[in-house]
Each structure stands twice: as C-alpha cells, then as structure tokens.
Give the backbone structure.
Amino acid sequence: MGAPGDFTEVARARITREVPEADPDAMTVVFDMVRLVNLLVTDLEAEVHRPAGWSWAGFRAMFALWVSGPLEPAQLARLSGVSRASISSALKTLEGKGLIERSRRSDDGRVVTVELTPEGRRRTRAAYLEHNRRERLWLSDLEPAELTTLADLLHRTIDNRPGTT
C-alpha cells in the first residue's frame, strides 16, 4: 500500500465487504480528519513550538491566555482542549521559563489564576505569527470560499457532537 489515500480505499472496501451495516463515508471522513489533525499537530509542534521552547499543550495554554486573559487552570484546560494533567505539566514548564505566572486573586485562597507575563505575551504573539504562516501553507490549495465552507462544516460537526444536544 502506497499513499494514505490508498489505505483509505482499501479500508472502505474491507468495511463494505465485512461490515455492510457500517457507513464507509463516515469512516472515511473521520479517518481523514484524525489523520489531518495528527499531521498538523506534528508539523506545528516540530516547526514552530518545540523550537520556541514549549510543547503543543504549552502553546495552546499560552494562546488561550493571550486571547482570554487570566484564567483558572480548569478553564484553561477546557479552552485549550487538553486535559488538566497536560495543562498542569505545561504550566509548570511555562512558569519555569518566566512565560506565565500564577496568583491567588479571589476571596477563596485556594483558587489559582494563571496569566501570561509580558515576556509570555510577546513570545505568544511571535509564535502565533509563525504558527499562522504554517496554517496558511497547509491551506494554500483552498480557495477562500472553500475555507469558509470547511470552517462552517467543522463548526457544525463540533456543535453536533454526541452528548451535547
């Protein structure tokens, strides 16, 4: 088997033959979306984030803080789309590099708030510019209308995920 698309076609044929009640179109779309996300994350981490000194989870945390401002770690994990354990580990690394700081701002002294330092804001912005350059390279073959359609389809799929209706 050569290209990934070849594997998809072989998988579709096998599923159609052995699991006739399955939906090969749904399998193809999800299989390709997962493959795309894995390729994107690997590329962005290797080309942008590791050279900048942090992980994918670290960038997601810094980006969420850059966009939203100070957040509690649980909110940060939710907005970043990563687990609390991943956020905890990423925050420890980012704090050690002077990119984020934690404080206790509420009446409840147990509640921790995380925010970017001035250096963290500067480096997040710089990394985002490179990150976005890579995004544009990945999507350069699509027309503006196709990008809009793809974004709409992805949002509809996210909004319709099982367990949210």
Residues 148 and 156 are 12 Å apart (CA to CA). Strands lie at 100-103, 113-116. Residues 4-139 form a domain with the Arc Repressor Mutant, subunit A fold (CATH 1.10.10.10). The chain has seven helices and two strands.
